[in-house]
């Protein structure tokens, strides 16, 4: 038991580092950038509150687990903004390989049974093939949209994002798992882009 607890706390202490990884998206009040731990916690709350939007076959509790774990790899890799200047870094083979290595290292701190369970959950989220992972991935895409809208543009301004980019990089993912949510969000964000000729 002593060895198991040592492994569990080694992982938990390593996970604390996620609080020091800052994302491209500012907080809604524009006071600073959101950190990845705050993002993960907020997404878990999104899953809980928007559970009624989940499609058939979605296990909301499993989605919450995915969302709490999904960005731990940023401890090693950092945040890779979806709207980066060339638009290719996010989701590239190099980033995927780096994140897989980070997942192996981080989950490798845990006892074998927990390692297998949590690493499988992380991989399921990344693959985005199950109804639960699609739901979770949709939430992951919509939350920064809400922060940018509330904060007057946030990273959209920084990365010079236009409507077509947002629709292809974000809208396609959100509408796949949360079609009613994306329709609602579109009604609120489209005027922001139209007003600015984007």
TrEMBL record:
<dbReference type="Pfam" id="PF13023">
    <property type="entry name" value="HD_3"/>
</dbReference>
<dbReference type="InterPro" id="IPR006674">
    <property type="entry name" value="HD_domain"/>
</dbReference>
<protein>
    <submittedName>
        <fullName>HD domain-containing protein</fullName>
    </submittedName>
</protein>
<keyword id="KW-0378">Hydrolase</keyword>
<dbReference type="InterPro" id="IPR039356">
    <property type="entry name" value="YfbR/HDDC2"/>
</dbReference>
<keyword id="KW-0479">Metal-binding</keyword>
<feature type="domain" description="HD">
    <location>
        <begin position="15"/>
        <end position="182"/>
    </location>
</feature>
């Amino acid at each position: 038991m002593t060895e198991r607890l040592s492994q569990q706390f080694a992982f938990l202490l390593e996970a604390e580092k996620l609080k020091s990884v800052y994302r491209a998206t500012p907080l809604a009040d524009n006071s600073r950038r959101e950190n990845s731990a705050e993002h993960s916690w907020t997404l878990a709350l999104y899953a809980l509150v928007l559970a009624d939007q989940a499609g058939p076959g979605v296990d909301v509790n499993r989605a919450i687990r995915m969302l709490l774990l999904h960005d731990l790899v940023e401890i090693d890799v950092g945040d890779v903004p979806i709207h980066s200047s060339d638009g290719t870094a996010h989701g590239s083979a190099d980033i995927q390989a780096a994140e897989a290595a980070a997942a192996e290292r981080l989950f490798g701190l845990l006892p074998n049974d927990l390692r297998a369970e949590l690493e499988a959950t992380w991989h399921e989220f990344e693959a985005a093939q199950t109804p639960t992972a699609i739901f979770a991935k949709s939430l992951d895409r919509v939350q920064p949209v809400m922060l940018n809208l509330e904060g007057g543009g946030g990273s959209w301004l920084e990365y010079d994002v236009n409507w077509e980019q947002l629709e292809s990089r974000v809208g396609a993912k959100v509408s796949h798992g949360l079609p009613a949510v994306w329709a609602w969000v579109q009604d609120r964000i489209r005027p922001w882009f139209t007003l600015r000729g984007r």
